[in-house]
Amino acid sequence: MTKLLVTYYSSYGHMYQMAKAAADAAAENDDYEVKLRKIPELESARKAMSAQDAYVQAQEAQADVEETTLDDLKWADGIVWGIPTRFGNMPAQIKQFLDTAGGLWAEGALEGKATGIMSSTNTLHGGQESTILTSLIPLLHFGMIFVGSPYSENPELNKYKTQGGTPYGPSTVAGDGSKMPTDGDLKMAGRLAKRVAKVASGIKEVY
Ligand SMILES: Cc1cc2nc3c(=O)[nH]c(=O)nc-3n(C[C@H](O)[C@H](O)[C@H](O)COP(=O)(O)O)c2cc1C
């Protein structure tokens, strides 16, 4: 069995939807064991956002998803990350979590794992690509092997209308927050998860 972890942070539910689609698509293959996990919220962020109905509702919707642990990272052969944009970069929640993984870095415990990144922004040019590409930096420090979302597998990338999707990884445009991932966004999320699991299976043979 190839073990796939789909881990995400989501304030308003967009990355949660994408992560669920990714996990569900990979789980269709009986050769893959899939875990869906969320990155823990920061108390400062909870305090800042808990007056917003959209935040409260989205947190309730994901209340049953277990929090990601360092053991989950170690367990996985492949990891898909759901990383929404904060000022064109990863949220503090993800950075804080990664900064607790120094021990895994020191052990080389994440080396050779396949990985892919999904993102979301409010606006089309608000930083999906920059978030995915800058989030890759710590993953490369961990020795992970990056898997993108090529045009050949994702015909949606050639559609010139406002929706997510990049060759670096799937994404979605949240608009004012009320816009949820499109069918195409969710399909691209699923394809990335399958691709990461497939690459992870191959790496297991040779690494
Ligand atoms: C502090 C903060 C910074 C943000 N920065 C950006 C940004 O640079 N560009 C953008 O388009 N959206 C930005 N957003 C909007 C988020 O990216 C958007 O709410 C998120 O992608 C939705 O995903 P989620 O529902 O999974 O949290 C920001 C939101 C917050 C709270």
From TrEMBL:
<comment type="similarity">
    <text>Belongs to the WrbA family.</text>
</comment>
<dbReference type="GO" id="GO:0016020">
    <property type="term" value="C:membrane"/>
</dbReference>
<protein>
    <submittedName>
        <fullName>NAD(P)H dehydrogenase (Quinone)</fullName>
    </submittedName>
</protein>
<dbReference type="InterPro" id="IPR008254">
    <property type="entry name" value="Flavodoxin/NO_synth"/>
</dbReference>
<dbReference type="InterPro" id="IPR029039">
    <property type="entry name" value="Flavoprotein-like_sf"/>
</dbReference>
<dbReference type="Pfam" id="PF03358">
    <property type="entry name" value="FMN_red"/>
</dbReference>
<feature type="domain" description="Flavodoxin-like">
    <location>
        <begin position="4"/>
        <end position="197"/>
    </location>
</feature>
<dbReference type="GO" id="GO:0003955">
    <property type="term" value="F:NAD(P)H dehydrogenase (quinone) activity"/>
</dbReference>
<dbReference type="GO" id="GO:0010181">
    <property type="term" value="F:FMN binding"/>
</dbReference>
<dbReference type="InterPro" id="IPR005025">
    <property type="entry name" value="FMN_Rdtase-like_dom"/>
</dbReference>
<dbReference type="InterPro" id="IPR010089">
    <property type="entry name" value="Flavoprotein_WrbA-like"/>
</dbReference>
